[in-house]
Amino acid sequence: MATVCSVCGSSEVIYHRRYSGEIFCRRCFLKNIIERVRATISRYELLKPFDKIAVAVSGGKDSLSLLKILYEIERDFPRASLTAITIDEGIPEYRDEAVENAVKYAENLGVPHYVFSFKDFFGFTLTEVVENGIADAISLQPCTICGVLRRRALTLAAKKVGATVIATAHTLDDIVQTYFLNILRGDTRFTPIGIRREVEGVIPRIAPFRLIPEYEIVLYAFLSNIPFQTYTCPYVERSMRNMVRAFLTEYEEKFPGSLYAALSSFEKVYTKSIEEDRRCRKCGEPTGREVCRACELVEKILERLKN
Predict the structure, then answer these.
(1) 3-state secondary structure of 81
(2) pLDDT, tens digit (0-9, with 9 covering 90-100), for 55-106
(3) Which run of H or of E encompasses 173?
(4) Number of helices followed by number of strands (H, E) in the chain
(5) Which CATH superfamily is domain 29-306 in?
(6) How confident is the model at residue 183 (pLDDT cuts 50, 70, 90)?
(7) Strand pairing of 52-56 and 22-25?
(8) Domain coordinates of the chain in residue numbers?
(9) How far apart are the C-alpha atoms of 122 and 299, rounded to whole Å?
(10) Which DSSP string corresponds to 209-278?
(11) Residue 163 gets which letter from DSSP?
């Protein structure tokens, strides 16, 4: 018996979802991804009718896919609005290409788009920090510095555009990887990632792709003619996440559905983060410390750049 699409019965099958047994043709797969994002938004109450959504668009395939899907969904909610924000951390070629992709794609969709940089917000680029030996001097990997400061930059950018919520393109893989990394770093406060939490004075962050595996977003991007970057971040091989990513990718390949099982297990034991109860004495953002990590990093880097 010929294999046919589980939804429409077409014989032009392009994808077999091993963890669920579903089989899709191109049209039904694309429609299904959008439906799953809608279901995720509804399940976790990620968005509200009057939201001004700031979509974090790095220019990579995941974030451009998120922008496209939220653009399709937002058209059904005219009281909401969509704005794309891009953070340029200052990595020649790699980020230059990504920013160009983001600018063009947002323009094609007719979505307002703003580009902000580490240089604007902090006075330095990531490349300057690495090439001046500062990353090594403070014993941090470039990806760690970038992650902390990108998060702060997104907050600052979202405030500038008047956003009520920040949407990021973190997939199921990204979220499970982060939980594992937290364990390896000794942090067992399992605060759910990508689920809207209302804290006074703080712009909530959501991850509409939190239940979709990375490889399905890759396929969605490919089938939707979304541009893929040709340059790779020069620091990715130095990332702690890279090792965890490789392990979890191989494990999911051998045992489909493992990422969903891991996500469920982690979030059954999550605890309220103490970050909701304390504020950084310098910037006022939630933190579990007297001075948040972002402010601490910026201070250390600026001090070394002066010397």
Answers:
(1) strand
(2) 999 999 999 999 999 999 998 888 999 999 999 999 999 999 999 999 999 9
(3) helix 172-184
(4) 12, 7
(5) HUPs (3.40.50.620)
(6) confident
(7) unpaired
(8) 29-306
(9) 9
(10) TTTS-HHHHHHHHHHTTPPPPSS--TTGGG-HHHHHHHHHHHHHHHSTTHHHHHHHHHHHS----GGGT-
(11) -
